[in-house]
């Protein structure tokens, strides 16, 4: 079914190509014939298409040599930890088709020649709504959360400055600091894997004692990528205020799936990821800030050419001028109305996450490494005493679990992992959640594990 759909869609693209090649002229006889031939094949393909159609092998599998058609989201329940919040809305997918050409958003870029000032498509409007959505004073779309860190690091840090991150921070945060020749140091998450205000204050004092200076920045994930635990960003931001250290809130796993209020958190910077949590294509992200810092991170160019006297208007150096262009940006805008709505359903997502986990824990030996009850849809589980015991005896070793899930049309686990793994239930409906739960139980029972 999905392959037939793709086949028809690709025919339509081929028709579109004939129009592009001939504009502004009418099609000649040869192209007319070609057009009609493809149109006929399209119609035949669509005619054949029905919900019961089984794949008879006549459909295509590749877009072009070696590039396979991707059908993961149509054929599977996908619990891949990083992919759940970045699945596109249909609006975003349509944008990809229409705005795919390189600098497509530049059609109507007029003075002052900056991406965030473009009115058509409505980028300017989006930017101001985005700031409101995050309750921050100003915002820019950037090339992923990591580029948001990089921009802040560029603007704030000098060589050998110290930045506090946590022992659970994402590697891209550490690299952005290292890239500036600055030094990252870790606030320990402790044995329950939660970063606290108290440990943050301790670490600030320690750095002060050892180096005689304060950290230049504290950057903490609200939800970390490893356990999906919630860290005390509210308390940490208060500690930062006391020491007058800027605080960066990393919302890669929050902005776009749960409500985030920058003023309430008291953050100086909010970084989010479009492709992780805002139903957007890569590479997209957001960097929001306050009136106090907007002229620091979004400062405009001041230099001019020594020979030519050239100046570059109001371009922003740390952003390298215009950031995310074309299809990824417009798709992000197209998804935004649904993103704004979906954050209001966060409580329901938490309910589903906890329901799944409670079912998962009925399998004897299964454990959860993340905090309980779950406050997020990303969870790390420990199956050393359950599925891994089977893996040890199975001819496919750890791959057996992947195979069994795959056979049940569930994907997203790292192939071969049977000891511990992460999964994300975000966006699954109740039927899918129940199916997911019973599938794990099914597999457990098949291999003789006790189920409560
Ligand atoms: C995924 C992730 C990032 C990186 O996000 P990109 O948008 O891909 O740059 C940063 N921090 C955390 C906590 C993440 O989970």
From TrEMBL:
<dbReference type="InterPro" id="IPR013375">
    <property type="entry name" value="Sep_Cys-tRNA_synth_arc"/>
</dbReference>
<comment type="subunit">
    <text>Homodimer. Interacts with SepRS.</text>
</comment>
<keyword id="KW-0648">Protein biosynthesis</keyword>
<dbReference type="GO" id="GO:0043766">
    <property type="term" value="F:Sep-tRNA:Cys-tRNA synthase activity"/>
</dbReference>
<feature type="binding site">
    <location>
        <begin position="145"/>
        <end position="146"/>
    </location>
    <ligand>
        <name>pyridoxal 5'-phosphate</name>
    </ligand>
</feature>
<feature type="binding site">
    <location>
        <begin position="273"/>
        <end position="275"/>
    </location>
    <ligand>
        <name>pyridoxal 5'-phosphate</name>
    </ligand>
</feature>
<comment type="similarity">
    <text>Belongs to the SepCysS family.</text>
</comment>
<comment type="function">
    <text>Converts O-phospho-L-seryl-tRNA(Cys) (Sep-tRNA(Cys)) to L-cysteinyl-tRNA(Cys) (Cys-tRNA(Cys)).</text>
</comment>
<protein>
    <recommendedName>
        <fullName>O-phospho-L-seryl-tRNA:Cys-tRNA synthase</fullName>
        <ecNumber>2.5.1.73</ecNumber>
    </recommendedName>
</protein>
<dbReference type="InterPro" id="IPR008829">
    <property type="entry name" value="SepSecS/SepCysS"/>
</dbReference>
<keyword id="KW-0663">Pyridoxal phosphate</keyword>
<dbReference type="GO" id="GO:0006412">
    <property type="term" value="P:translation"/>
</dbReference>
<keyword id="KW-0808">Transferase</keyword>
<dbReference type="Pfam" id="PF05889">
    <property type="entry name" value="SepSecS"/>
</dbReference>
<feature type="binding site">
    <location>
        <position position="250"/>
    </location>
    <ligand>
        <name>pyridoxal 5'-phosphate</name>
    </ligand>
</feature>
<feature type="modified residue" description="N6-(pyridoxal phosphate)lysine">
    <location>
        <position position="276"/>
    </location>
</feature>
<dbReference type="InterPro" id="IPR015422">
    <property type="entry name" value="PyrdxlP-dep_Trfase_small"/>
</dbReference>
<dbReference type="InterPro" id="IPR015424">
    <property type="entry name" value="PyrdxlP-dep_Trfase"/>
</dbReference>
<dbReference type="InterPro" id="IPR015421">
    <property type="entry name" value="PyrdxlP-dep_Trfase_major"/>
</dbReference>
């Amino acid at each position: 079914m999905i392959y037939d759909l793709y086949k028809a869609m690709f025919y339509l693209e081929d028709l579109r190509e004939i129009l592009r090649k001939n504009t502004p002229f009418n099609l000649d006889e040869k192209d007319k014939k070609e057009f009609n031939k493809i149109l006929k094949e399209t119609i035949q393909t669509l005619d054949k298409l029905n919900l019961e159609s089984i794949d008879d092998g006549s459909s295509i599998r590749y877009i072009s040599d070696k590039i396979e058609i991707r059908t993961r989201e149509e054929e599977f329940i996908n619990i891949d930890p990083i992919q759940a919040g970045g699945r596109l809305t249909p609006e975003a997918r349509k944008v990809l088709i229409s705005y795919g050409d390189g600098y497509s958003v530049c059609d109507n870029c007029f003075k002052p020649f900056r991406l965030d000032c473009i009115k058509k498509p409505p980028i300017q409007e989006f930017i101001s709504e985005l700031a409101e959505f995050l309750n921050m004073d100003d915002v820019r779309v950037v090339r992923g959360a990591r580029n948001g860190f990089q921009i802040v690091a560029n603007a704030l840090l000098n060589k050998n400055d110290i930045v506090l991150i946590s022992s659970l921070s994402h590697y891209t945060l550490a690299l952005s600091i290292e890239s500036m020749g600055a030094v990252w140091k870790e606030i320990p998450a402790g044995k329950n894997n939660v970063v606290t205000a108290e440990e943050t204050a301790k670490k600030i004092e320690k750095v002060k004692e050892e180096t005689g200076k304060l950290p230049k920045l504290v950057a903490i994930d609200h939800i970390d990528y490893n356990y999906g635990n919630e860290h005390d960003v509210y308390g940490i931001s208060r500690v930062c205020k006391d020491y007058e250290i800027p605080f960066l809130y990393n919302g890669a796993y929050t902005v776009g799936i749960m409500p985030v209020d920058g003023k309430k958190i008291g953050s100086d910077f909010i970084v989010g990821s479009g492709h992780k949590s805002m139903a957007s294509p890569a590479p997209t992200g957001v960097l929001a800030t306050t009136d106090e810092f907007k002229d620091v991170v979004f400062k405009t160019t001041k230099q001019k050419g020594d020979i030519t006297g050239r100046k570059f208007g109001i371009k922003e150096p740390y952003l390298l001028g215009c950031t995310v262009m074309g299809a990824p940006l417009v798709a992000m805008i197209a998804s935004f109305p649904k993103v704004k709505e979906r954050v209001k359903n966060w409580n329901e997502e938490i309910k589903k996450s906890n329901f799944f986990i409670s079912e998962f824990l009925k399998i004897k030996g299964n454990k959860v490494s993340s905090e309980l009850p779950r406050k997020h849809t990303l969870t790390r589980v420990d199956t050393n005493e359950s599925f891994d015991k089977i893996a040890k005896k199975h001819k496919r070793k750890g791959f057996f679990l992947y195979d069994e899930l795959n056979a049940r049309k569930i994907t997203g686990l790292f192939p071969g992992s049977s000891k511990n793994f992460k999964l994300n239930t975000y966006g699954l409906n109740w039927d899918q959640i129940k199916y997911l739960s019973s599938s794990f139980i099914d597999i457990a029972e098949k291999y003789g594990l006790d189920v409560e």
